[in-house]
Amino acid sequence: MLERKFRPHPDSAPGEFYVVNGECLSCGAPHAVAPDLIGWADPNKDQCIWKKQPETEAEMEQAFAAFDASCVGCYRYAGCDPVVMERIGFDYCDHAPSSWERKAQVASARIAPLTSYERPGWTWAKGLRVIVWVGVAAFFLWLVFVRVAPDPRLQPLR
Fold first, then answer.
1. Are 76 and 146 within one domain?
2. Residue 63 CB contacts under 8 Å (≥ 6 apart), including other chains
3. 20-47 pLDDT, tens digit each
């Protein structure tokens, strides 16, 4: 295992993922999203620890969620897997490449910018749903303001 930048809690499971000893705020947020991996070091809930290291794909997703939920950034990664480092953010990695190295990797890859339909999280179905909901909302507004409660000044003369 590679050397760590910070000292982990002694009760933490050995491995690449760790919590910096003494920096946990005991917020409980990582416990909620990764109950299989994150636990308390003592009954007073003063320090969170990794109960076990992630092994499966589902546990890796829980580990990523724990990093996302961490209040103060005390969760760290001491490994060197570039996929994991990019997913959790280089600021939380002990062996992340420098910003110059990352810029060089991006420049050498010559990645084309994503078009709107290729962006993660956006699909044609979502776009269509938005258009439909806007149309439904406009119809109900028209129904309420024009059909249900018409302005008496706009009524035809009789």
1. no
2. 17, 34, 37, 54
3. 888 777 888 888 898 889 988 887 777 8
